[in-house]
Write a structure and sequence with these properties.
Layout: H1 5-9, H2 11-25, H3 32-62, H4 70-99
Helix pairs in contact: 2-3, 2-4, 3-4
Length: 109
């Protein structure tokens, strides 16, 4: 199966997403610093994928791509949902750990 031009163009973005997802799967509920970093990274990558989706749609509207790529747009929607969920859950872990008086390992200033 030939690679679509978007597969190559956005491969770094998908690698970053996979890294964030892996960190999420290994997240420790007592690691406030890790949860905070994950929260920020997920939000940053969410913004990037939102822009990628916008670029893909603009290319299609302008006729800059030979074919439309509905599977890519569907995948982008799913990635955005997952990143939003990761951001929310990491934020909850960070807040819970930050508010824990017995675990003063990390306090966001």
């Amino acid at each position: 199966m030939p690679m679509h031009e978007h597969d190559i163009q956005y491969s770094e973005d998908f690698r970053a997403y996979k890294d964030i997802f892996e960190r999420y799967m290994n997240m420790n509920e007592t690691d406030a610093a890790g949860a905070y970093d994950l929260m920020i990274d997920a939000l940053t990558q969410y913004e990037r994928f939102s822009f990628v989706k916008l670029e893909v749609r603009r290319e299609e509207i302008k006729g800059q791509t030979e074919t439309k790529d509905p599977p890519l747009k569907d995948r982008l929607d799913e990635v955005l949902k997952v990143l939003r969920e990761i951001n929310q859950e990491a934020r909850m872990v960070w807040r819970a750990a930050e508010e824990d008086p017995e675990n003063p390992t990390y306090k966001h200033v």
